Automatic annotation (TrEMBL):
It comes from Flavivirga eckloniae. Keywords: Membrane, Transmembrane, Transmembrane helix. Residues 185-281 form the HTH LytTR-type domain. The keyword Transit peptide does not apply. InterPro entries: LytR-like (IPR046947), LytTR_DNA-bd_dom (IPR007492). The chain crosses the membrane at residues 58-76, 96-118, 138-158. It holds the Pfam family LytTR. This is HTH LytTR-type domain-containing protein. GO terms for molecular function: DNA binding; phosphorelay response regulator activity. SMART domains: LytTR.
Length: 281
């Protein structure tokens, strides 16, 4: 079967999914809060701004919208962590759960807070537009917000699939290796690691072959896909599938155990954080 890279065993790594709400939420939610106060009212705008409680209506609306915004941001990420609620694997179940907790629950919360607010400002429920305007508009806003999260998920997931497809194609390609006067092609996926030793560069394969090749580690770092290969130190570039284990040391360095070698390989402490990000990506 050969070596299968970690990325190719996953379609989407949802725990690190990149939503855009942190970038646009600060703009969208205030607009929703203000527009809700204006549209969910049966008075025209000129009359509305003359009402003494109008400014407090705006403040209250922004408060509720902010709470719901933070809640929805937490909710989608929490649901994404469950494999049983994946949009790809169980769309119907996820859609139902998303509707219950993403629309119905915050809608109930918003209406409850609205009732408390009306009581505080001494407005009779029968005189408010909570049922004929606010309820339908709040439902519409919540539905649109959840839909935007789903569309965000789909668009990013599609882009990730394309990136992984391109990366997998590159991983399947072959590189030309010059061994003395002879040239041969070796699949990139067969390269376990490259090691520079006494100014001589060696290529080690998963089949436990050792080849003396031309070029430098810097040259090969540019030729190999970064998704799968990492330069551990001045001497070694490794394929992630050649890494058997990691061990932290007392000096905060990282000891790396590789297949087909018993050499002691250490990652400088200055590169540990960057390596772990690459390793988890």
């Amino acid at each position: 079967m050969g070596t299968v890279p970690y990325e190719l065993r996953q379609i989407i790594k949802v725990t690190n999914f990149n939503y855009h709400d942190k970038n646009f939420g600060w703009i969208i939610y205030p607009i929703l809060g203000v527009s809700f106060t204006i549209f969910a009212n049966d008075n025209d705008f000129e009359t509305l701004i003359q009402i003494p409680s109008f400014k407090w209506d705006i403040v209250f609306s922004l408060f509720v919208v902010s709470i719901i915004g933070f809640y929805l941001a937490w909710l989608v990420r929490h649901l994404d962590k469950s494999k049983d609620l994946s949009w790809e694997k169980n769309f119907s179940k996820r859609a139902i759960i998303q509707f219950i907790y993403g629309v119905a629950a915050p809608l109930t919360l918003a209406l409850g807070l609205e009732l408390v607010y009306l009581n505080i400002i001494n407005v009779d429920l029968n005189q408010s537009s909570i049922l004929n305007l606010e309820l339908p508009l709040a439902f519409l806003y919540l539905f649109i917000l959840n839909l935007l999260y789903y569309l965000n998920y789909v668009s990013v997931a599609y882009r990730k699939k394309l990136e992984e497809k391109d990366a997998s194609k590159l991983f399947e390609e072959k590189v030309k290796v010059s061994v003395g006067a002879k040239e041969s092609l070796i699949p990139i996926k067969n390269i376990a690691f490259l090691k520079s030793e006494d100014k001589v560069l060696w290529l080690y394969t998963f089949e436990d072959k050792q080849l003396h090749i031309s070029g430098t580690l810097n040259d090969w770092k540019l030729r190999l896909p970064n998704e799968y290969f990492y330069r551990l130190n001045r001497q070694i570039i490794v394929n992630r599938d050649a890494i058997e284990g990691l061990e932290s040391t007392e000096t905060r360095r990282l000891k790396v155990f590789l297949k087909n070698t018993d050499d002691d390989i250490y990652l400088p402490k200055s590169k540990v954080t960057d390596f772990r990000k690459w390793w988890k990506s």
